[in-house]
Amino acid sequence: MRPETLAIRTQTERTGEKEHSTPLFLTSSFVYDSAEDMAAAFEDDTLDVNIYSRFSNPSVDEFVKKVCLMEGAEDGIATATGMAAVFSSFMTFVSAGDHIVSASAVFGSTHAILTKYLPKWGIEYSYFDMNKPETIEGLIKKNTKLLYVETPSNPGLDIIDLKFVADICKKHNILFVVDNCFATPAVQQPIQFGADLVLHSATKFMDGQGRVLGGVVVGKKDLIKQMYLFIRNTGPSLSPFNAWVLSKSLETLYVRMDKHASNALYIAKKLEGHPALSWVKYPMLESHPHYKIAIKQMSNGGGILTFELKAGLDGGRKFLNNLTWLSMTNNLGDSRTIASHPASTTHSKLTQEERQAVGITPGLIRLSVGLEHPDDIIEEILGALK
Ligand SMILES: Cc1ncc(COP(=O)(O)O)c(C=O)c1O
Hints:
Layout: H1 3-9, H2 35-43, H3 58-71, E1 75-79, H4 82-93, E2 99-103, H5 108-117, E3 124-128, H6 136-139, E4 144-150, H7 162-172, E5 175-179, E6 197-201, E7 215-219, H8 221-234, H9 240-250, H10 253-271, E8 277-281, H11 291-297, E9 304-309, H12 312-322, E10 327-328, E11 338-340, H13 352-357, E12 364-368, H14 374-385
Parallel strand pairs: 2-3, 2-4, 4-5, 5-6, 10-11
Antiparallel strand pairs: 1-7, 6-7, 8-9, 9-12, 11-12
Helix pairs in contact: 1-3, 3-9, 4-8, 10-14
Bound molecules: pyridoxal-5'-phosphate.
């Protein structure tokens, strides 16, 4: 079966109730038939039995299995949030004295982990510019353990050639970790290009309706085994209820991503050349600086586009205030179109230079294009620009 079908047809084994839709295993622990079975469950780590939902739960396992099938991964593990997926990946694979090479254009909280928390435990980092991949190799040191990228990045929509970076990582025996949250496995499968671990904030397009938080990491079996032990013991586990919601959502991920992308491309094309804007950025616009890489590794451009208002910071605030129904919120990947102005909100605490370094210009508007009729969306945006 193809991944589109597997995302719909992969399901926990049907129970005696003969349910059609997948059941929810809302339970913290599981029972045993005998004291011997219970002892064996604790003694032998390789037994396929559920013990406690911090380590395994059928609803969580179903969600993870689907993501593995969609990403082409051997194994996976779920986490309570996307940030728990990022943090667990770092904590499992780096130790005091190690070094991480990362793109500077990463989500704000990932930037905080790299710059504020990991240095407290003696883990150093070096940033590279996504627009200068030729500088990556020069940053690698003897103690470099892990290389981290987001592509497309949030919110700058920078794109990096996954195969190019994977080859460098292989050459230097470094773990290559990709945050695939903006593309989703319906659009891009980084493992195919050589990534070792792929992680997601499932809170975004995977959920698709802005309801629950979640995260997931997939990759090689031996790497996931190490992450399993970290998560089992430290507890950033996904709740069965959230996993059930997310697993149902994956059934529609492919059709949703197609529609998010066709709406986004339609809007991006309509906005290109608008007199109030300096530029419009979307991976599948030929004007995107990394368009050639995008068409090589993405099946469509995803649901996020950005544009720069000539009127700058004040223009950004004014644009948001002029919206009548389009949502003003910092989430993304929802069926509802969302506008945000990073310079006056999520990234307002950074200095102008720090914002510039990650591509956040004063008038940058990030649009998470939803599933509404594209003409309604563009009319709303053009009205606000006017
Ligand atoms: C690219 C990216 N990675 C990770 C995260 C963190 O995910 P969560 O909010 O589920 O912790 C986000 C959240 O916006 C994100 O955009």
